[in-house]
Design brief:
The complex is a heterodimer of chains A (396) and B (341).
Chain A lengths: L19 H33 L30 H34 L4 H14 L4 H15 L7 E3 L3 E4 L2 E4 L1 E4 L5 H27 L5 H19 L4 E4 L2 E3 L2 E3 L2 E3 L1 H27 L3 H9 L4 H31 L11 H13 L2 H30 L5
Antiparallel strand pairs in A: 1-2, 2-3, 3-8, 4-5, 6-7
Helix pairs in contact in A: 2-3, 2-7, 2-9, 2-10, 3-7, 4-7, 5-6, 7-9, 8-9, 9-11, 10-11
Chain B lengths: L3 H15 L9 H8 L2 E5 L8 E2 L5 E2 L1 H14 L5 E5 L5 H6 L5 E7 L2 H6 L2 E3 L4 E3 L1 E6 L13 E6 L3 H12 L4 E6 L2 H9 L5 E5 H8 L8 E3 L7 E8 L3 H20 L6 H4 L5 H6 L16 H8 L3 H8 L29
Helix pairs in contact in B: 3-9, 3-12, 9-12
The chains are: A alpha+beta (396), B alpha/beta (341).
Chain lengths: 396, 341
């Protein structure tokens, strides 16, 4: 036969199942339909089962009075507040320990990661011992260690350790003086914002000048002086309009001032130290991933050592560091739900614990809690992806 | 990271989503007979109420309710599968059918009875919330607790009573909420809080677990009503009746003087109340699809209410709780069972 199988007569369209694009579209439609049908079935079945069992459903409970106390509240709360308010309280406590944990873990992690590469034998081994110890002990045990082991060694409220007459440490927490701002203090934050804007302007101007003339100013130190010096100057000029409320022992506990509860300290320490050991390894691998030739090439261009690190090594290392770093941040935030084991009032303890049990609305409460962790995690990864795209090497 | 508790909750919540429609109207009695064991939800270890003994057998006042139901339904008090539940997961476990009876020092409240799809079958212990404090604080009454740090177990009515009490008396407090009673005691012993609050019966049980029980005392103030009782799912009235009357049989047995030791002789009793209770006069188990000897099985294998009380929480136990309001109605207490006739 002389007819070749691959040649079609002109004007003849192939059947749709032979068209790759259409076929792909159909498969995707089928998948969407299956997922949608599954969701509809699950939701319908849940509702039917719940009503068949006489279980109240819906989110109306969020408006009811909660009626229980919470140990640490960042915003106004009393037992007369609503269940919806307990959700916000728990969420803020989770964000507080998560946010401060991310900052502390990053700082410790970067220091230990760089120390691990130190030519000093002792420093490198110490960093190594830190990493191998803390990343190989389960986090829950570390939390218990910081909470129970450290808590038991602290003195009781009446025998607190005092640092001066202002700071007290005992088994109930760390008590700090609280600044009370008097009238006229409003000028300080305004100056602070002005100083930041001035610094940004300085940096932009310096960059343009550098491109035009090749000359540089030490803008980092200059902006530091502007940002902190200027508000300080205004503070002194206005006669320091701050008074300090000191913690005072009243009955069982200290009153007044700021209280940092031991549950927070234990959780924050445990999360930071545990996650930092992973971040340290990520930082080390990021730095080691840059071939030594890059450093040598930069030095051959007679760049000073500081600029070699800042302009050549670190930007490339960040490409390697940031994606796994994002995972560590997400882990830290999710791990903060272990708070419930030591009584830190985070979202899981307050909302998915007490509120769930008082209202009995398990499905609604657990769904809301899961949605919160999902949204926090997605936001963090969105930010980190944006940051990664910014620091990524622009290849030409 | 999710703790075990939340995994269990998720699993239970998921099972409500996935369970077929048929199970909603399940016949618990039939399922129990087919399985040959009662699925009973108990605490995660509360001496006197539900805790495993040295040999790993569950013992306690709440456990005896499960054993009574098993004796009535299956004729064997040992045919019970115990499922240990913490305060938060207990209702979900019952709703989703993981357990058929929840006998876990659970307080009977309006919300729990009316919105969770559950029914309380009675009260096996009348309790009230109290406070345990360290003796060297020199406190004698609850009204001296202004500003105190208080350790509580999460997910209990205790949290609500506490807030109400302090608000009503215009006092401040600082709650530290733990997940399990073990951790709560840990926090109290570490000195994290001045006061541990719970139902007074639980305080007695927790106190004997302390390193130095003598250093702590339980204040005499009781700030709330805590009627504790067994719970079943709503919608299966037959099963509801069985659990309800299993407890009533134990209370009636005490009233009529029937004990595990004399139950066999009592079969020949002339007393019509006893004859009806033990199935010698008419079959009062019929309405519950049970044999006529259902109550005889309970009393001979588990004992009457007084025996169960003294053995587990009363003077024969380390807890040494007095009968007090839990005495029979004709003895100055609240325990009163409707007659069997």
């Amino acid at each position: 036969m002389s007819v070749r199988p691959n040649v079609r007569p002109a004007g003849h369209k192939p059947p749709f199942w032979r068209d790759r694009a259409k076929r792909a579209l159909i498969f995707q439609l089928i998948l969407v339909a299956v997922v949608a049908a599954f969701l509809i079935y699950i939701i319908g079945n849940t509702q039917a089962n719940l009503s068949a069992r006489g279980i109240t459903t819906g989110f109306g409970f969020l408006g009811n009075t909660a009626g229980f106390g919470i140990g640490q509240t960042l915003i106004e709360y009393s037992s007369q507040s609503t269940y919806g308010r307990t959700f916000v309280i728990g969420l803020l406590n989770t964000l507080l320990v998560g946010g401060l944990g991310v900052i502390a873990a990053s700082i410790i992690g970067f220091i230990v990661g760089i120390a691990r590469l130190s030519p000093n034998w002792l420093i490198a081994k110490l960093a190594n011992a830190y990493i191998e110890t803390f990343r190989n002990i389960p986090l829950l045990l570390q939390i218990f260690f910081w909470y129970f082991a450290v808590l038991r060694t602290l003195p009781s409220a009446r025998e607190s350790m005092a640092f001066g007459e202002a700071i007290f440490l005992n088994v109930r927490g760390l008590y700090l003086p609280q600044p009370l701002f008097e009238s006229g203090f409003g000028l300080i934050p305004v100056t602070f914002v002005v100083a930041i804007i001035a610094s940004i302007a300085l940096i932009v101007w310096n960059k343009r000048r550098h491109e035009a003339t090749g000359k540089r100013l030490p803008v980092f130190w200059m902006s530091l002086v502007i940002i902190f010096g200027l508000p300080l100057l205004v503070l002194v000029a206005t006669g320091v309009p701050i008074t300090w409320e000191m913690p005072v022992l009243r009955g069982f506990n200290f009153g007044g001032g700021i209280t940092i509860i031991p549950e927070f300290l234990a959780l924050w320490l445990a999360l930071s130290i545990y996650t930092a050991s992973f971040i340290a390894e990520i930082v080390r691998s990021g730095i080691q991933a840059i071939p030594h030739g890059q450093t040598e090439a930069a030095q051959a261009l007679s760049l000073p050592r500081k600029l070699v690190l800042r302009l050549v090594v670190i930007p490339q290392a960040m490409r390697v560091i940031i994606p796994p770093l994002t995972s560590q941040y997400l882990n830290l935030i999710k791990n903060s739900s272990l708070a419930t084991a030591i009584g830190y009032p985070d979202l899981v303890s307050v909302f998915a614990g007490t509120t769930l049990n008082q209202t009995g609305q398990a499905i609604e409460v657990i769904a809301m809690t899961m949605a919160v962790y999902l949204i926090i995690s997605l936001l963090v990864s969105m930010f980190m992806n944006w940051f990664n795209a910014r620091v990524a090497l622009v290849e030409r | 990271m999710l703790t075990k508790k939340h995994l269990a909750l998720l699993a239970s919540a998921g099972s409500i989503s996935l369970a077929g429609m048929a199970t909603a109207q399940a016949d618990t009695l039939e399922d129990t007979i087919e399985r040959g064991a009662v699925q009973c939800g108990v605490s995660d270890g509360l001496p006197g109420f539900s805790a495993p003994d040295d040999d790993g057998n569950w013992q306690g006042l709440d456990v005896d309710v499960c054993r009574a139901v098993a004796a009535a339904v299956l004729g064997d008090a040992e045919a019970v599968n115990y499922i240990s539940l913490n305060a938060v997961e207990r209702f979900t476990a019952l709703q989703s059918g993981e357990v058929d009876v929840l006998s876990r020092n659970t307080t009977w409240t309006t919300t729990r009875d009316t919105t969770l799809g559950l029914n309380f079958t009675g009260v096996n212990f009348y309790d009230g919330q109290g406070f345990m404090v360290s003796r060297d604080l020199g406190i004698t009454g609850a009204d001296e607790l202004d500003g105190a740090s208080i350790c509580i177990q999460s997910g209990t009515t205790t949290e609500l009573n506490l807030a109400d009490y302090f608000r009503a008396n215009d006092m401040e407090f600082n709650p530290i909420v733990f997940d399990t009673s073990e951790q709560t005691v840990g926090g109290y012993q570490a000195g994290r809080c001045d006061v541990l609050t719970s139902d007074t019966s639980q305080l007695a049980a927790l106190r004997i677990q302390l390193d130095d029980p003598e250093a702590s005392m339980i204040l005499s103030d009781v700030i709330s009503k805590e009627p504790l009782g067994p719970v079943v799912r709503q919608g299966d009235d037959l099963w509801f009746n069985i659990v309800k009357w299993s407890l009533f049989a134990m209370i009636n047995a005490e009233e009529y003087g029937v004990t595990s030791e004399n139950a066999e002789e009592m079969l020949n009793s002339e007393n019509p109340d006893v004859a009806r209770l033990l199935g010698q006069d008419g079959n009062y188990g019929e309405g519950m699809n049970l044999e006529a000897d259902w109550a005889y099985n309970i009393i001979s294998q588990v004992g009457n209410y007084a025996e169960s009380f003294e053995r587990n929480v009363g003077m024969d136990s380390p807890l040494e709780i007095e009968r007090g309001v839990n005495a029979l109605w004709n003895d100055g207490g609240f325990q009163y069972a409707p007659p069997i006739r």
